TrEMBL record:
<dbReference type="Pfam" id="PF13407">
    <property type="entry name" value="Peripla_BP_4"/>
</dbReference>
<dbReference type="InterPro" id="IPR025997">
    <property type="entry name" value="SBP_2_dom"/>
</dbReference>
<feature type="signal peptide">
    <location>
        <begin position="1"/>
        <end position="19"/>
    </location>
</feature>
<keyword id="KW-0732">Signal</keyword>
<protein>
    <submittedName>
        <fullName>Sugar ABC transporter substrate-binding protein</fullName>
    </submittedName>
</protein>
<comment type="similarity">
    <text>Belongs to the bacterial solute-binding protein 2 family.</text>
</comment>
<feature type="domain" description="Periplasmic binding protein">
    <location>
        <begin position="56"/>
        <end position="309"/>
    </location>
</feature>
<dbReference type="InterPro" id="IPR028082">
    <property type="entry name" value="Peripla_BP_I"/>
</dbReference>
<dbReference type="InterPro" id="IPR050555">
    <property type="entry name" value="Bact_Solute-Bind_Prot2"/>
</dbReference>
Amino acid sequence: MNKWVLSVLSLTLAGGLLAGCGKTETASSGAAASAPAASTGSGSTSLAGKKIALVTQLNIGTFSAQYIDGVKEQTEKLGGKLTVFNSENDLAKMSSNLDAAINQKFDGILIDHGTAEALESGVKKAVDKKIPVIAFDATLQVPGVTNLEQGDQKMAQQTLEQLGKDAGGKGNIVKIWVAGFAPMERRQIAYKSFMDTNKDLKEIAAFGAATNNTALDTQAQMEAILKKYPNKGDITAVWASWDEFAKGAARAIQQAGRTEIKVYGIDMSDEDLQMIQDPKSPWVASAAVDPKDIGRIQVRYLYQKLHGDQTQDTVVLDPVYVSRDALPKDKQVTTDQLAQFVKGWGGSEQGYTDWLKDLEKQAKK
């Protein structure tokens, strides 16, 4: 996909606040309101203390944790209160969580991944009740709902094009990918196009599954692939369509001493950066949008709807390509520092209106 859309299980990293009932509350200043407010044209007192629900399909890995941090940060800056409903990769539970958010009369709902089949009925119910909905990587086609996506085809193209250049236009590729997620399906389109036009690059193996231990499971599967192709030159590179896949593959390759194999991933977190900066790691590059920015932007568009503003059906976030060559060799950097070395990273003003900035100032008082 947010992290979108997979030790590895990072449910507790999502703000460290997961409750046993499958949701997390993060308090902020301001009293909670029980119903959506009509637009006043100023976006000030009518938007104070809003209750915001984030319904996630799964919270796995540091990307998801940083995405949720971004949602929490922006919500609190606007004086709201966030509750996270974690569905643990269970679409039926996600549908139930969405119904719970509607029945509990949240003022606005954010959706992280999921499928139209699981969510469309509940989303239509929310819209009918005048509860605004902003979705991230969920491919919902419900009038009035704004969908955010990361520019997934561009991310895939960026990594694949560099893979092809580094490989000299020929070699054997292992693809790690999983169906059933909107961002993955978009990334697959770019992959197929790339392979169709680069006939000297051969896919010799493909696997991938989103589990509660995705990185560890991927590592075990990659170890089996390495045993099947034990000789130098058998595998040129690994294209991983998700950072959890890249982590597992890189660890397997590094532990096997197969340093000639390079890994190209998608998505970025602090943990990912640490691996990419390690000169011993086969993971050399990734394309991504700052996960915190994704969360921040999603909240901004939700507040625009709460304000009564019109928002577009689809918002595409522009990714950047991050390679080891662009990073310092004498110190470890974090995603908060990455903009110093990679142009276009982080600090996006997308969806950031003047009245939202004013609302932030008022919420501080």
